[in-house]
Structure formats: structure tokens, C-alpha cells
């Protein structure tokens, strides 16, 4: 299961990190080089010690010493090159997973998005991007080098000591690895409840931050802090319980490493005392044992972390299995009839509507009315392809969009929702957002005057390209609403759909902007309760009458 998920995440990462495979191949080459050099350094020490005891030529000893120093120097250079490349790979892997996560979430069907807790999703995305990189480097920089070193060390020991001693060394090391795998399986179950409660804590924290105004004006600060403390206490208790159990498993592993260290040092001492190995051999064996002791501890820690990282990746990958919006590039006809519902069944508030037959034509202003929760926004979401019909058909200018929406429709249909979106960056970037047209400064300035937004620049002595980040919080609801409408206008749509476009505007401003839209946009479809909007409408659609009989979904 884990390998399957890791491979899937690898494909996700590779989508935005095009040179990932090549970079990893270079990194593997560097790991092989450092592992080989690290393995032969104790052998050089053995040769130097044995040569001095055997009264070898001083020049030969000099050559050995210089060779040892050069090998050490080369290993350090390669190590730091490896670290630099590893840092690049880690950063690219983490960010590529984040990019893929963002793209995936934005393409998930709206019905699935509605079920996602944003606080939990954010925490899991950040954790999973980091976990994926850490898993990759656990294998490449922890497990793989130790395996290579064991191969090199086994060969050197078999040649210089004996094959049985070398195989015993290798077998014991393999036993430690099996113990580590056992610990990984055991510790994995302790991470799942820990991550789950941490996600809940993050979600609760973001919930309080996002509702800070309501909490403050209702004098509920102490109440909310006390409530949050209860969630924190649950997290602390779970965290301590999980980490205590994991620590016990780690102590169990350290005990086996201790026995490995003690056993082979005692055996080497015995062999030295009876003259079976030289002083150089003793030093070499001791160096190899010490060399593997630290990596064994590191592997224990990595396997411990691997369990948690595996849980993080597996949990997060479930988001990639959600249903995605299916779009095509089919072209519609130049038809007077815009949206057309034919015997359509819509899901409204968890219930199923009666058959809907509705035609909307161009060169009109439609106003959609109805009580809260009766399906006004739902009707719009079907028109925009966010929801799919349960039965029947939906057309746009003769193109059947029942099953698949066409990206071509977005070329002439724009939407302004109830939630005002102002992004970080400049005012120009906010206005010319995803638009296919370019505008001169004078054109934008004139439109800002029409929408009564010129003061956003004048009052703060800003240009269209200056950063507005520090001023975003001071924008009023009406200013944000007008900015969103102007952004849609700059896309030059033929059809503009608006959800409560004048809710934050006074009557005079509402009428002025609606008149402007009527003059410059071919067709308007407006959800509203405002009387001034209804007065301008060519046709009013009452969703309560449109949907009529509502039956529970089966």
C-alpha cells in the first residue's frame, strides 16, 4: 500500500519537477562515491599501522598517509556537493507537491470541495509535501549509503580477516535492519491518531482566527480561549501517549545496537589477543563498528520518522482520488438561446427537484429570486458547470454540457460571487486577473472613476503597479464588491452572472453600476433581493416556483 502511494506521489511530483529523475541519478552517483571512500578510509588506517609495525619503507608509509588524506578530502568535497544538490532536490520536491496539491484541489468537483475542511487540508498538504521529500531522502541518504557501506565493508573484512567473520558482521547488521522494519510497522499505528488530532487542532485554530470579529464583538474571547484549551489538552495527552510508545520501541532498538557494538568489539579483542588479527585489523574493525553504530541509530530514527511520513503521505493522497471536473474544448453555436435546461433534475439542499425546463436568451437581464436556501446559487452552479445534473440535459448555445463543460464557454461567460476575492499584489494584477485583454493606464483609471474606486490609489499615493498588500484589510465590503465586478467587466464577457452584486452597496451606487453593466454587457443573470435590480429586469425567475416539488434523494 505504501509503495503504491509513494509511486503515485512520485508521479505527482514529477509533473512539475521535470529534471527530478536526472537530479536523483546524479545524487545516487555521489552517494555511491562517498560510501565507497568512507568504507576504504579505515582500510588505509590499517595499512598505515601495519606498515609501521612491519618496518616498511618510509616512502611507502608517506604514500599511504597522503592517499588517506586525499581520500578524506575528496569525501568531504563530495559530501558537501551532495548536500547542496540534496537541498535543491528537497526544495523542488516539496514545492512541486504543493503546486500539484493546489491544482488538484482547484480541479476537484465542487460537491467534493464542499466536504473538505480547509484547515485540515492546509495542514495535511504542508505535512505531506515535507514527508514525501523526507521519505525520498531517508532511502537515498540513510538506507542506501549504509547498504553500500555494508557491501564494501563485508568484502574488505572477508579479504583481510575471514569470510565467516565478514558474513557474521553482515548478518548481524541485517538483523538490526529487520528489527527496524518491525519497529516501523509498530510505530506507524501510533502516528495516525497523533496526526488526526493535530489536524483537528489546526482546523479549530483557523476557525477562531477567521471568526475573530464575531468573537470580539460578542465578548466571547475568554469562552473561545477556554474551549480551545480543551482541544489543546486532548492533543497534548495524545502526543505524549504516542511519543512514549514510540520512545519505548526506539529504546528496544538501541539495546540491539548496543549488543552489536559490544559483541563484535569483544570478539575482535579476543581475536587480537590470540594473534589472529593485527593491530591494524583491530583498529579497522573498531572503526567499521563505530562507523555503522551511528548510521544504525540514524536508520532507527529515520524508520521511526518514516512511519509518520508514510501516514502523512497516505492520508493526503486521498485528496488526489476525488472526482475531478471533466472539461472539453468543444465550440458552441452562435445561437440566440443561451442556457437551456431540458427535463433536468437538480439536487437542491440535499433533495431532488422536479423536472426543470428553463430557457435563457441573450440580450436580456434576468433576475433570480427566492428565499434563502431555496436554490438560487445552486441554479447558477449548474450553469457554470460546478454541479452536474442528476437527469435531463443542459445546453449552452446548442452545445450539450450535461456531462462535460466546455472551456470555450469561459471565453464569454464571467461570474462574480458573494465572497469578494482580493489577491495579494498590485491593483492592476487584481483587475487584469486571468483576462485575455490588455488595457492602457488611462482606460483602467477611467473605469476606476466610473466604479468610484479611484481613491484607492489617490488616497495612498499609489500607482496601478504598487503593492496593495498592506492596505487590503482596510478595503470596505463595498469597495471589494465593486473591484470584483470591475474585474469581471475587464474580461469583456457577453454573459455576466452575479450573485448578490449590490449587497454591500447603497441604492444610488447599485443603480449606477447596474445601468453601466446593462449598457456594456450583452446578457446579465443576477441573483438578488434588491428591488432596484428587480425593477431593471427583463425577466424574473422565482426558484421556488421553478423547482416546485422537492423530494428526498435516494
Automatic annotation (TrEMBL):
Domain ABC transporter residue range list: 332-553
Transmembrane segments: 24-45, 57-74, 137-157, 163-183, 246-267
Domain ABC transmembrane type-1: 25-308
Alphabetical list of CDD domains matching this protein: ABCC_MRP_Like
GO cellular component: plasma membrane
Compartment list: Cell membrane
UniProt keyword annotation of Cell inner membrane present: no
Any one GO molecular-function label of the UniProt entry: ABC-type transporter activity
Gene3D superfamilies in the record: ABC transporter type 1, transmembrane domain, P-loop containing nucleotide triphosphate hydrolases
Subcellular location, principal: membrane
SMART domains linked: AAA
Keyword match S-adenosyl-L-methionine: no
Pfam families, alphabetized: ABC_membrane, ABC_tran
InterPro entries: AAA+_ATPase, ABC1_TM_dom, ABC1_TM_sf, ABC_transporter-like_ATP-bd, ABC_transporter-like_CS, P-loop_NTPase, Type_1_exporter
Keywords: ATP-binding, Membrane, Nucleotide-binding, Transmembrane, Transmembrane helix
Membrane topology qualifier: Multi-pass membrane protein
Protein name per its UniProtKB record: ABC transporter ATP-binding protein
Organism: Acinetobacter halotolerans
